[in-house]
Amino acid sequence: MKKSLGPQCLLFPTPVLLIGSYDQEQKPNLMTAAWGGICCSKPPCLAVSLREATYSFSAIVKRKAFTVGVPGKHQVKEADYIGTVSGRKVNKFAETGFTPVKSDLVDAPYADEVVFVLECTLLHTLEIGLHTLFVGEIIDAKSDTSVLKDDGSPDIMKIDPIIYDPAHQGYHGIGPFLGKAFSIGRK
User: Fold this and answer.
1) Which end of the chain has the least Cβ crowding within 10 Å, N or C?
2) What is the CATH number of the domain that holds 178?
3) Interatomic CA distance for residues 175 and 157, integer angstroms
4) How many domains does the chain have?
5) 7-27, pLDDT tens digit by residue?
6) What is the Cα–Cα distance from 132 to 140, expressed in whole angstroms?
7) Residue 152: left if φ>0, alpha if ψ -120 to 50, beta else—which one?
8) Over the chain, what is the mean pLDDT?
9) On the CB side of 187, how many CA atoms lie within 13 Å of its CA?
10) Band of residue 148 on the pLDDT scale cut at 50, 70, 90
11) What's the CA angle centered on 63, arms 57 and 40, to 5 degrees?
């Protein structure tokens, strides 16, 4: 039997993402977001929902670009800190020890220490309510070679991403391999 929990922002898991942008003075900034994910395969796109009150919101609208970094679980303290302070008041790169890297392809920075990054141009915005959905076309995916498999693709176990539990406001890691997609269900 299932118990109704009412309308809530619950989906398991949600990713922990570091959104990179430049403010009007070209200061690099990061914010932590959990409401995001892939939303289209052709063109490759990612959607992330931000509140207008965030410092990053106007920067992304103005520059029409952002980056999305996937921090590893060894960076959970930095990712949490980035989500608890405003770039209006704090230089988050300096405070976390992350090194800002200017993208060659989009007008946004990313943290060099984050092993997997997506560089996006702003394609669409949709005001939903408290949040606005930003759809970014993925112009490039960048990965440290240390987290690549022999075939050149990113290895989720080496990236070791942080996932967020919205019901309990907690961070977790990923678990073991369960089976091959588009195959295990056919047996």
Assistant:
1) N
2) 2.30.110.10
3) 9
4) 1
5) 999 889 999 999 999 999 999
6) 23
7) left
8) 96
9) 6
10) very high
11) 75
